Amino acid sequence: MRAIGVIRKSRRERVSRAEFEELLRSAGYEVVAILEQNREEHPKYNIGRGKLEELRELVNEFKPDKVIFANKLSPSQAYNLWKELKVEVIDRWQLVLEIFEKRAHSTEAKLQVELASLQYEVPLVKEAIRRIKLGDRAGFKGMGEYQTQQYLKHIRYRMGRIRRELERVKADREVKRKRREEVGFILLALAGYTNAGKSTLLNALAGEEIEARNQMFTTLDTTTRRFKLSGKRVLVTDTVGFIDGLPPFIVEAFHSTLEEIVKADIILLVLDASEPWGEIRRKLLASLHVLRELKTLDKPMIVVLNKRDLTSEEDILDKAERIREIVEERGISVFRVVSISAKLGQLGELYDALEEVILTLPKYGAFEVIVKEPEKVPQVMALINAIGDVLAVEYGAETRIKAYVQTGMIKELIRLGVEIKRLDQSGEGKSLGDGQ
User: Which Pfam family, any one of them, does this sequence belong to (predicted)?
Assistant: First the structure.
């Protein structure tokens, strides 16, 4: 498919040409021309009338299948442009949805993409109905007024069905999530801009071979894998990548997937350290905006500068310091900024940061575990090492183990026939239960 791209830049809209071209390539378009303009938005055509004439000449010369705007088009602008150019005109978000449709594999991802697409179509159909009533004969997809009205009803009915199906998926996921917490898993969520290397990091952490390509929106399906960190059981989930200006209808459609970030114990915000600082800053701010919309900025977060093997140590240190300044200015609590190379398996800084932040989680507490039967000591120690950290052990007639333990696993320990006391700041204990 051949396409002409259009980019309008202004003080209020800063569009990355490189990112737009990457989106076009990811959607499978052959880009025959890119038209750029610096001006504020024209209410009727988005671009000025002079540029519209240039665009018309390019359309006549190259005969593209579509004209694609890097900016968001209102329904009336899209119709006006189509009327002038006599070729299909779409905007950035329709382009993103086309990529999503190509990448969606699971039933859930396909439902989310369909919901987002239908939500996008609603205002377009309403605009078509409005113009028909004005005598413009602007049916939607060649349909007349009655057919367009019926199509709008169908869209709304289908959106209701999809939302109910996604609610069932959400309920099933919530059951699985609670069970994982009950058996002592730490929940990590990989978040960040598209193509930052999240899937490669998941592979490095879990020793998996999940598809990881150097292209935008490789991951639309939620992928969860397990790994162990110093004996602790950890689940890491890869989520859909962010993009600058992510519109509310896409956030809503993918809410069940993005909820993995909301429910996580720790967020790993992944950035591509090899990019110029201007791009890193833009993508960091875009990611923080989405996390703010999800109300997750109060969660423990580690900013992960990936691909450090593609730049220098001095560059990494400079970018890490700038990132700290940005998050501190905005009052965001970030545990640490670390640098890694997921591709080369260089994850030492990330492991160290995770070890520290895990023990600060609300689900952890300091306890004394009293084992009265010597033969049970190895089993109790193994379980504690899997769900916490041993601080000290005192052997004797009774084995006393002081440790950080996940509170959700207290019942599991009590079932082994031990006594458990919560330790206060002075080190004194208050009994929680005795399995004898």
Answer: GTP-bdg_M
Output the pLDDT for position 141: 59
* Tokens encoding 143: 């349909």
Fold entry, domain 184-358:
Rossmann fold (3.40.50)
Q: Is 175 exposed, middle or buried (0-12, 13-18, 19+ CB in 10 A)?
A: exposed
What is the rounded average pLDDT of the residues 130-158? 75
Q: Is 309 annotated as a binding residue?
A: yes
Distance CA 303, CA 321 (A): 12
Instruction: Identify the burial level of 359 via C-beta atoms within 10 angstroms of its C-beta, where 0-12 means exposed, 13-18 middle and 19 or more buried.
Output: middle
343 is in an annotated binding site: yes
Is 157 marked within a binding site? no
- How many Å apart are CA 214 and CA 195, to the nearest integer? 6
Residue 139 assigned as binding residue: no
Which residues are within 8 A (CB) of 383 and not within 5 positions of it... i.e. 6 or more apart? Answer: 409, 412, 413, 416
pLDDT surpassing 70 at residue 194: yes
306 is in an annotated binding site: yes
Domain segments of the chain as ranges = 2-90, 103-165, 184-358, 364-434
DSSP state letters, 122-155: HHHHHHHHHHHHTT----GGG--HHHHHHHHHHH
- The answer to whether residue 136 scores a pLDDT higher than 70 is no
376 is in an annotated binding site: no
Tell me how far apart the alpha carbons of residues 355 and 431 are, in angstroms, rounded to a whole number: 27
Q: Domain 2-90 falls in which CATH fold?
A: Rossmann fold (3.40.50)
Tell whether residue 240 is among the known ligand binding residues.
Answer: yes
Q: Is 308 annotated as a binding residue?
A: yes
Please list, in sequence order, all residues whose beta carbon lies within 8 angstroms of the beta carbon of residue 120, skipping any fewer than 6 positions away.
Answer: 93, 94, 97, 249
State the Cα–Cα distance between residues 240 and 232, nearest whole angstrom.
Answer: 26
Residue 342 labeled ligand binder:
yes
Q: In 3D, which of 124, 103, 114 has the Cα closest to residue 194? A: 103
Of the chain, the end-to-end C-alpha distance in Å amounts to 73
User: What is the second-level CATH architecture of the domain 364-434?
Assistant: 2-Layer Sandwich (3.30)
